Amino acid sequence: MEIVEASNQYQAAIVARDLFGDSVEVADVSPAVGRPSASIGGATTASKATKKVAKKRRPLSPEARAKLAQNLVKARAARAAKAKAAKRSTKSAPAAKKATKRVAKKR
């Protein structure tokens, strides 16, 4: 196992190929233990500097807000009904199986 220093994993693979020939097989690429990666350190400071401010949304009219709220109520009710039906079907399925087993035993 050889350790190669490079700024990213692709460059590390290229450096390994240059050092050991075309027949080299790169099995795993990971940052060296105990040393912070140069690319990670630079990325965090750059993202802080280029953070965009979120745009303000246009306010909803009371009619549109009411329509969305009503849609939410319907969706929640439908989801609850679906869950209730699923519970009911799982409870009734084993009972039906038991009834068929009893009939089979009487024969």
Describe this structure in a few short sentences.
With 107 residues, this protein is mainly alpha-helical. It has helices at 9-20, 38-49, 62-106. The chain is elongated.
Provide structural commentary:
With 107 residues, the protein is an all-alpha fold. It has 2 domains: 32 residues, no CATH class; 46 residues. The protein contains 3 helices and no strands. It is elongated. About 7% of the residues have low confidence.
Instruction: Report how far the terminal alpha carbons are from each other.
Output: 72 Å
Radius of gyration: 31 Å
Strand residues, percent: under 5%
Mean pLDDT: 75
| Strand-pairing-aware structural class | mainly alpha
Order of helices and strands: HHH
Q: Largest sheet at a glance?
A: none
Supply database-style keywords.
3 helices, mainly alpha, single chain, 107 residues, 0% strand
